[in-house]
Amino acid sequence: MGTLGFWRLAQADPDWIAAVDPDGTQHRAGDLLVRANRLVHGLRELGLRPGDGICALVPNGADGLVLYLAALQAGWYYTPVNWHLTGPEIAYIVEDSEAKAFFVHPRYAVEGARGAEAIAPDRRFAVPDGDFSGFRAIGELTDGRPDTAPADRTAGAAMHYTSGTTGKPKGVKRALNGLDPDDSAELMTFLLGLFGITPGRPNAHLVTSPNYHTAVTQFGGTALHMGHTLVYMDRWDAEEMLRLSERHRITNSHLVPTHFKRLLSLPEKTRASYDLSSLRWMIHAAAPCPVPVKWAMLEWWGDCLYEYYAATEGGGTLATPEGWKSHPGTVGNAWPISELLIVDDEGEPVPAGTPGTIYMKMMGATFEYKGDPAKTAANRLKDHFTVGDIGYLDEDGFLFLCDRKADMIISGGANIYPAEIENEIMIHPKVADVAVFGIPDEEWGEQIKAVVEPALGSPPGPELAAEILASLEGRLSKMKWPRTIDFIAEMPREPNGKLLKRKLRAPYWEGRDRAI
Known about the structure:
alpha/beta
């Protein structure tokens, strides 16, 4: 131990550019260190102790990074809040996380103020120094406080809230390890080490998605602790991503398959006009990637695409470029510190090639859903846990995802996996995005419905629907074809690429006693 961790690196080289905001503002490591130190001194005066938590409703950039760095060296839990939530949803997280301070950016002042009702007025702060009613300027915490490192430093942790596909979101809380913050950060770098990522400069990590997502915090934070420069995007844009990659010589990033589809739909001339030779470890996850889309990206970017499957709760798989090419469609095999188990509905292991519920465990990792022992127990099988995904292992131990259990369609007694159908439809050049799900059918129980967001310049209508269905001929058995296709102007997705299928499905199930 002893060479990595942001605080150590910043003291050794205060002039290293550690972060670049979306507007291009550069931040020296030494300046970020001073801001984080002052914040710890100020929050301790407010009464914060190790084990307490803070919440933040802030956009991507250095302001949120300073909050994260303060919490991680003071033994606090840091909870970044999804900025698409409404006031009451924000208030629920502030209250449930037992936050002792709440930081809000002026951009989110309206819903942030409603959410702040869950916390005492003297614990609400505007970041950066904003002047909006009901919030104290963050300067009141930091002005005049020492620049020096606080005494009794101890490692904190991020506590993210799961997206709450069933009921209210839950905070995934891990026991604090009591280590020195830099030593703890160095342990975190094991994750990026799995992908072969090396520490030091010149390396730069592009933050393409909102920082309130677990993986975005994990991969960005860990890259920083390895001495990489963090380059933030405010919102995803395909050409802007290429521009930033060339400008900052990006070596690694964290992406989702929707990003690939948007990148590939750029004009050939645009794609060819950027120098992407610096890219080395472009990591993707969050949704299955259609095989032809991944092949097209490998042809364009070369062997720098790494894929993984994991959950906020811990454990996962990794597919290297070589592993994926020899097993196209896989999400990889288990990490060295992780274990996979595929079981049937009775909890018994199934043979290779047979789909079942995926359970995982990670050595030494324990967690609880905060305040919900029942939910924690319900998702466990001995010391393994599941997030409800279905998949199978091949003979070589490579994992292939089928779908989420909750999204499976049962039509005429047959189990149908929408993800498989979506992957086939997604390949069509006139399709920008697609969602497949079951809707009520008196005879079959459920019938297959597809909702398609047409590509630019492709008019929606019966002709396009017929063309899409015809393209499935010989590639997908007729029982898996959508009975009907509806069109939508824009697919409801979270910025991390996660499809909000419930929003699409709900209208079709209205008035039914069974809504899946």
